[in-house]
Every structure is written in structure tokens, then in C-alpha cells.
Amino acid sequence: MSGEQRENLTYPMFGQAVRELAQAVADDGYDPDIILSIARGGLFVAGGLGYALDVKNLHVMNVEFYTGVGKTLDMPVMLPPVPNVVDLSEKKVLIADDVADTGRTLKLVQEFCAEHVAEVRSAVIYEKSQSAVKCEYVWRRTDEWINFPWSVEPPVHTSGEAPKENKEAL
């Protein structure tokens, strides 16, 4: 993270980013059978790519790694329910996420898919230089902290609960 500089993604920019990512996938001739989103940030990306690429088969993989701003677990952990590998068998999979920061989450998901799928590629809005995974489709590269429009505001609570710390702004 470079000082206090921040990359600020707005919803209009997000729409542009997803369309440009989808165009890059299409221009590359990659025709995925499944889009596998990494929850939570990848849900938004996968949904947009699904519509733009006309792929209706979307799956979700929940992976926990970040526990706070700049704080991570020792290793990323898959949370249940884990996708059934039979559903991925011999398919062309496009993994979608919002950012490849360390790349460790993407690497875990790629390794999960590798033995079961025909081909796996990754699409992210942002990729950082330290990422262990170099994605095939990247909208922008940055080493700044990223403020995503869906996670920059604290959660809304109606039950009087204290809001949890915002973990998603990378």
C-alpha cells in the first residue's frame, strides 16, 4: 500500500470495468462454461461478467483471508459450502474476483479447480504487483489501497447491533 493514496472505484466505473473485462475475455476467444465467483467482492464481478458474456452458470466459493484493513489470516480458508467438483468437471471455468492483492485466495481457488476442470482462467478488476497469481484478464493494475463502492460504507444495521469492522476495502 503506497502511503495514504487510495484507488477509488465508483459504481459507474465498476460498470465500465466489468464490460471491458468481458470484452477482453470475448476478444481472447475464451468461452467459459462456468463463472466461479470468490465471495464476497467477486460476486459483483461474476454477476456482471455473467450477463455480459451470456453465461448463466455461476457458482460461488467463499474464502476468508482478510480479517481487517491490511490484516490477514496465515492462509486463506475455504468456507462451506464448497462447490461440488462434479459440477466443475471438464468445464472451462472463469474465476472472478474484485482484486488480486496477495493472490493467495486466487491461488487456492485455482488449485481447487485445477484437477477437475478442462481449463481455468481468472478475471479481476484490480491486480497488485505483489500478487502471486497473474490473472489473464485485468481491468487495472495498482498498488494503492482500493475503496470499492460496495464496501467503503459501514454495514447498515437495523437491530441495534454495533457494526462490524469493514474488512472488504482493499
UniProtKB/TrEMBL annotation:
Molecular function GO labels: glycosyltransferase activity
Keyword annotations from UniProtKB, A to Z: Glycosyltransferase, Transferase
Domain Phosphoribosyltransferase: start-end pairs: 12-153
Biological classification of the source: Bacteria, Bacillati, Actinomycetota, Actinomycetes, Kitasatosporales
Highest taxon of the lineage: Bacteria
UniProt cross-references to CDD domains, sorted A to Z: PRTases_typeI (cd06223)
Spans traversing the lipid bilayer: none
Organism: Streptomyces abyssalis
Protein name: Phosphoribosyltransferase
